[in-house]
Design goal:
170 residues; mainly alpha; 59% helix; three-stranded mixed beta sheet; 6 helices; Four Helix Bundle (Hemerythrin (Met), subunit A)
């Protein structure tokens, strides 16, 4: 599996996290009551850990499931922030997890492993998005195409409008 899109999504997330941290916005809570930067990064680490666990189980020939509810739990998110040591530790953890995910996914998994159906439950904003078996490949591509870009935008939305990076037109 080509991991270029996944690597690029992580790099864009890292760039956004750095921009927000440099602006001193890591603990700023958005006006809509959403997560601050540390909470967003902690959530990403939990999603990464869940994805790594699913990939590892499939590679080991073990039945697995994929459930993101723990990554939405506010107590767990707070605990991860504490255990990681805050923003810097969270960014370091995500970088290591990204390397692991790209290494495990890239040349390691066979096509049949990537096509393994994984019973999945994915929630967002208290709504069930997925509650059915999904090929492992789609969990990985969803991370690259939806999950990471969504949290990248969440991070950038913490910045004052005047400090947000401009997007190229086209």
């Amino acid at each position: 599996m080509d991991t270029t899109q996944l690597r690029n999504a992580y790099q864009t997330l890292f760039d956004a996290a750095s921009t927000v941290a440099d602006a001193g916005e890591t603990r700023c809570t958005p006006h809509d009551g959403g997560w601050n930067a540390e909470q967003i990064l902690a959530h990403v680490t939990l999603v990464n850990a869940t994805t790594i666990a699913a990939i590892s189980a499939v590679a080991a020939g073990i039945n697995t499931t994929y459930d993101n509810r723990i990554a939405l739990d506010t107590w767990t998110i707070g605990r991860v922030i504490t255990l990681a040591g805050g923003t810097t530790g969270l960014r370091d953890r995500i970088r290591a997890q990204a390397d692991a995910l790209c290494t495990l996914t890239g040349p390691t998994l066979s096509e049949p492993e990537l096509d393994t159906m994984v019973p999945s439950r994915l929630l967002s904003n208290n709504e069930v998005l997925v509650d059915q078996p999904v090929p492992l490949r789609e969990l990985i591509t969803g991370l690259a195409a939806v999950e990471l870009p969504g949290h990248t935008q969440q991070l950038l939305d913490l910045l004052p409008r005047s400090a947000r990076p401009t997007r190229p037109k086209g």
